[in-house]
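Async update (no meeting this week)

Hi team, since we skipped the sync, here's where things stand on the single-chain job. The sequence we agreed to prioritize is pasted below, unchanged from the tracker. I ran it this morning and attached the output directly underneath so nobody has to dig for it. Comments welcome in thread, and please keep replies under the output.
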Amino acid sequence: MADKKEIQQKITELRDKLHHYNYKYYQESISEIPDYEFDMLLKELISLEDEYPEFNSPDSPSQRVGGTITKQFDTVVHKIPMLSLGNTYSKEELEDFDKRVAKGLEEEYEYFCELKFDGVAISLHYENGSLVRAVTRGDGTRGDDITNNARTIRTIPLKVRGEDYPDYFEARGEVFLPREGFNEINREREENGEALLANPRNAASGTLKMQDSGIVAKRKLDCYLYSYTGEDLPIESHEEGIKQLEKFGFNVSQTYRKCQNIEQVFAFINEWESRRVTLPLDIDGIVIKVNDIGQQQQLGFTAKSPRWAISYKYKAESSTTLLKEITYQVGRTGAVTPVANLEPVLLAGTTVKRASLHNANEIARLDLRVGDTVHVEKGGEIIPKITEVDLTQRKPGSEPVEYITHCPECGTELVRAEGEAVHYCPNTKGCPPQIKGTISHYTQRKAADIDSIGERTIELLYNKGLIHSIADLYDLSYDDIYQLEGFKDLSTKNLLEGIEASKNIPFENILFGLGIRFVGKTVAEKLAAHFKNIDNLARSNFEELIAVPEIGERIAQSVVDYFKDEDSIQLIERLKASGLKLEIEEKQQLQVSSVLDGKSFVVSGVFTHYGRDEIKEVIQQHGGKVVSAISGKVDILVAGENMGPSKKAKAEKLGVTIISEEEFQSMIDQK
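Output:
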């Protein structure tokens, strides 16, 4: 048996190494080891922690991967209130602020200027150098405990660097979703036929309140820290606090500046008004703080905000231009999106030629007409938007826009479901953009990962009549591909090899690649893990689907509808015949005890200490069997909160024993 001290030492060494590599990569942009080696070290650490849980620690790098389910977020009272700042859009008001500071201090002072990041305020609590709690701003007096989700953000230290830290302190900052990550999420949502997220800030806020930290980890949030606070900290200025955060290994944006007077503050504001477009996230202004902490205390607070700080907010960049025409795009799911084609105009550092109009409701709300002079804005949203029409410039005799009634690609009459704003082309099997979009979706990296085929190649194959569905990819021959424009021997072989390699792609990726509406990557993973193979999923009914954690009614109905369709059934059979893996590779079940041997269980409801899949796994680890439906053969129903009354009534009628989560825990503790 391995020596426990040696194991503990090995775990400590692995944690220290991974913390170091993580810091170098995320704070200094230095990759000291390849990603594969990092992943192998992390895998080794997780394996040791699973085998020796007595050495587990909340500041372990293994906590970055998420997986914890939070049923409800506890409310935490801030030790030091997180006050909001007074806002101004006027440099005259900023001068007035400076006069009030001068009058209140009657001595020399300096300012510390920082960018006002458009994210979600967070307070990170550290005890003995380790992260113990992360709390949202909330109402400024109390916020939500989101520690499990914050641990997944790789730029937040789980353990601070060095040893010269106080027993307790708070680091405050802003959690944000970088533009690149935001665009990626919206691309996936568009592919799944879901409504797009409005802006990165809302996306970051929603992500922090997700129950499954595993999903949060995949969103790749980031965090900039800008405040070091606590009781009796050995600092005399805000600048010293910032330097201390940098020393401890926190992610501090290197965009701050100390200013000796209000004129230097104005110069900083003017500089970043144009430079802000170069940042990986949005900012909506500049925060100006009196630097000296003693002077801050002297100036004090109003009821709502500090007298020693203020926020100067930039106005959203806007310009006017001519609406030349409105065109309509058809996406993979059949959603029709109107696009405003504009006279080119310079906005936020880029030339804008087009703006999304979202749907017919938006066109009607704006009362848009071709030939109108329109105001275009690029604020928190990534895509430019038309905010209003300059009616003084409207030409006499202009007519309101009539939204198209038929698909611009295939001529099919459009439909609009009750309660939805978007028009759809229902011709999923005959509309060219939908067919090509479905194939393109299937070949992407997160799905079948056929990287040797792009949109141009799909276009060529489709136009030649060689592919009409994803199953047709597996029937392509050398001669089919070689005849295409631009293809030679090597590129033809590469494409065929890529198609062949996709037969070894995991089931959950292929399931995502099928393009079932509302089934994104995460949903596909959950469905694959629950149903194990495509046949079980195809046979599942609505009730069985919504019983899967985080699968709602809309997703469940979409899956049921997909597998009712005869063409979908034929497609699955063709994929099977081509040799694709349409089942998950089962992991060997860890056997903990035999205390539940011979007993069959049904699990229903929401639990405090377990996710539903977790409690099922625990049952199996102790020898029990999990089934999906109540019958006379079931021994025990483990009932959580919000369990359906019909399931409980059926269990009582059949004499099935009903136990609570606490009673279940007592059963397995008897081992």
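Quick observations from my side:
Residues 4-28 form the longest helix (25 residues).
Residues 98 and 262 are 7 Å apart (CA to CA).
Reply here if anything looks off.
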